[in-house]
Amino acid sequence: MEQEESTAAISTAQDELIASTSQAAAGADVVTGSASGTSSMIDAPSQIKVYKPLEGDTSAYKAPQDDLPDSYFVPTAAEAQRAHAGQVRQRERLTGGPLLTKKLRDQQAQREAASKRRWTQTKIRIRFGDRTQIETTLSASATLKEVYDFTRSSLSDVNRSEPFYLYQTPPRRVFSLDDESLNKLTLAQLELVPASVFYIRFANEDLNDGHRSPPIRAELISKAEALPLPAAQPAAQQLRVEPEQTVPRSSGNSGVIACPHKFATHDVLLLSHTSAIELQWIRTLAIPERLLE
To answer: Region (Disordered): which ranges (predicted)?
Structure first.
């Protein structure tokens, strides 16, 4: 669970992650999920990256002290009002503009289709209670079931049958396998490309303990590597995030709120509650606005 964290410079250490994503582009209720086997691509340990939580006191990253209650992630009235205002403005822009000719509509449809084809794969990270993260690459046409299958295949034998659900925050949104409206959509339609981080929550509270090892396979823990720290940046290039700063989002055809950075599916992204390193990862993987036109 998240707690307010300090901010830091945009990381240049994510170039490899950006490059691999670009290459791929060229080419709630607790739910149990599927315990069945997954494809060899996902199940093979060599295809899964594991990142250890950072140790020590750094200005860029601090582990949470306490587990926050679910009520912490419920949007406030002001946040909900801002999100609603953004949706109203977007609806007015879509309905209040000039009528398009068939030719212009066709051109717009072609641009939207090209934008969707640009990213054929997406990098998925699952973050555990101690902030260990596992990462794999899935097709942009995959569904939430594949994300759950990948997650479950990474759990140790003794924990593989434990019920869990995946969510993103802030604001808190559960991606449940019981939600038919979500299960019918691809990861691309859910605006989870080219990269997304999910948090995992187990029904067994002991598995959510941030002071114990993550309940994943031993061979995955043994290959864990350090999460890259952000490189030093000149003061003029440093990312400044003011408290309560928000990033508005525009709605897509699927009815899901789309983030300009193509990271999460929420009305408002409260940067002050987002891990600094994850924020840098979002920033470096952001799709330029011009590519989405």
So the answer is: 21-41
Q: What are the pLDDT digits (tens) for 114-142?
A: 766 788 899 999 999 999 999 999 999 99
pLDDT one-digit tens code per residue, 2-45: 433 433 333 333 344 444 454 444 443 334 444 444 444 455 54
Which domain covers residue 147, as residue numbers?
44-53+103-227
Number of domains making up the chain? 1
123 strand-pairing partners = 137, 195
CA distances from 82 to 152, 207, 242, 253, 283 (A): 36, 35, 17, 21, 22
Of all residues in the chain, what percent carry a pLDDT higher than 90?
32
168 part of a folded domain: yes
Q: How far apart are CA 166 and CA 201, in angstroms?
A: 6
Q: Is the peptide bond before 194 cis (omega within 30 degrees of 0)?
A: yes
Q: What is the CATH number of the domain that holds 109?
A: 3.10.20.90
